[in-house]
TrEMBL record:
<comment type="similarity">
    <text>Belongs to the BolA/IbaG family.</text>
</comment>
<dbReference type="InterPro" id="IPR050961">
    <property type="entry name" value="BolA/IbaG_stress_morph_reg"/>
</dbReference>
<dbReference type="InterPro" id="IPR002634">
    <property type="entry name" value="BolA"/>
</dbReference>
<protein>
    <submittedName>
        <fullName>BolA family transcriptional regulator</fullName>
    </submittedName>
</protein>
<dbReference type="Pfam" id="PF01722">
    <property type="entry name" value="BolA"/>
</dbReference>
<dbReference type="InterPro" id="IPR036065">
    <property type="entry name" value="BolA-like_sf"/>
</dbReference>
Length: 80
């Protein structure tokens, strides 16, 4: 899987202000900013992203995904 393919899967299932990916085709590092994360705990945010990938996590199509998830306000504060 390419970064573009993975990004398309995530953004198709989750409205993102930002979705950046780096990786080697199996191990991925993502920075995701979404208003859908408002009021959610970290585990809930990760579950939302995993839900966009469906069975691809179980079938090893995406072997590992490390995420940093932010709301738009958190991203703005972190970037300032």
């Amino acid at each position: 899987m390419t970064a573009d393919q993975l990004q398309s899967l995530i953004t198709a299932g989750l409205t993102c202000e930002l979705c950046q990916l780096e990786g080697d085709g199996r191990h991925w590092y993502a920075t995701i900013v979404s208003s859908a994360f408002e009021g959610k705990r970290l585990i809930q945010r990760h579950q939302q992203v995993y839900a966009t990938l469906g069975s691809r996590m179980q079938t090893d199509e995406v072997h590992a995904l490390s995420m940093k998830t932010y709301t738009p306000a958190e991203w703005a504060a972190q970037s300032a």
